[in-house]
Amino acid sequence: MLARDHFRQLVCETPFHPRTAALNQLNLWHRWRDHTVADAYFDVGMEYNAIRNSCAVFDLSPMTKHLITGPDALAYMNRLVTRDVAKIKPARVGYCVWCDDAGQVIDDGTIFHLREGVYRLCSQERQLDWLHSSALGFDVRIVEETNDVAGLAVQGPTSCAVLKSLGLAGIETLTPFGLRSFPFAGGTLEVSRTGYTGDLGYELWINPERALQLWDALFAAGADHGIRAIGTLALEMSRIEAGFIQAGVDFLPADRAVRVDRTRSPFELDLGRLVDFSKPNFTGRRALLEEQHRGSRYRLVRLDVEGNKPAKDAYIYDQRRTNVGVVTSSMWSPAAKASIALASVKMPWGAPGEELAAEIYYQKELKWNRFMARCRVVEGAFFDPPRRRATPAADR
């Protein structure tokens, strides 16, 4: 449950804050779900390199977490989200989205099936009101446990070696989206093979009272494996390379939209694989069936962009210079050695291999420049190493 009088504190510190504050030489912070979280500690480039070349640790404690229990927990979850939750077995994790009645995405997140009939739903945005309103007629209990569970993302090619050094026996056999518990400091440490970097990685979940013990033990175990704390700026780079979307950036949550045409459906976010029409009724099912029949308005595409200038907020044009979309996320990718972007384009544009153009504006020595960069629509992630899925996981 939430800490007493938590609402009286304007900005909270995560359970790991005593360690993250001591490391933050740049003093760069931002507010995430009323918590203070580091944007960067020392150098964004070096933090990014830790994700791709060694082991990176990110404090994800502010992630919104809801514990869902009760006799109707499975039926409720299947009514809430678009995928078939019955296929997520105990000790497994599943990616999901949930929609409003119009089939527009409210948020995406992960479902942790902790044990039979007990689920934890993690998301970026707060969803307690929507979860309760969706529970009408179901015998379930929904508790926000954001402040009751501290979390660390441990990501990168040496992340498994670090956890083995921490004493987590057999961690290398944990499969992607698997969940396992280990004894730690007189309590329980939950480890999931999940992450937001598109690389080999894990997420660690523990009681806040043992958070600092976990941090210290983890960094001691990773001393010979290049372990480094990272902030949100480096994490953002890795998630774009992985082709992952972010609420409020790549799509507007339907419950926050003023203009109904600004939202997106799962099909329009390249998440059609998460829509299962073979299961019982779920919120947005009728609208999504109609969309499947008539076709979608937009689609999310991944672009390989000419040149080395990030296509930030760029308009996308077809060969006739007709505006057909807009870039939602962009960066120069060290891994892909290219300028890359995620974009929302109107149908029927955006087929794999199609050539488009991005209108890029950039400033150099106080002068703004305009550059029409050629773009090519690519399939799949920009960075997707085999180690991400390999089981047993390698040490490097």
Structural write-up:
The protein is α+β, with helices and mostly antiparallel strands and 396 residues long. The protein has three domains: 6-61 and 149-230, Gyrase A, domain 2 (2-Layer Sandwich), CATH 3.30.1360; 63-141 and 246-296, Aminomethyltransferase beta-barrel domains (Alpha-Beta Plaits), CATH 3.30.70.1400; 298-380, Elongation Factor Tu (Ef-tu), domain 3 (Beta Barrel). It has eight helices and 20 strands. It has a six-stranded mixed sheet with strand order 11-12-13-10-4-14. Strands 15-18-17-16-19-20 form a six-stranded antiparallel β-barrel. A five-stranded antiparallel sheet has the order 6-7-8-5-9. A hairpin with a 2-residue loop joins β7 (105-115) and β8 (118-123). α2 packs across α7. It is globular. It starts with 11 loop residues before the first strand and ends in an 18-residue tail after the last strand.
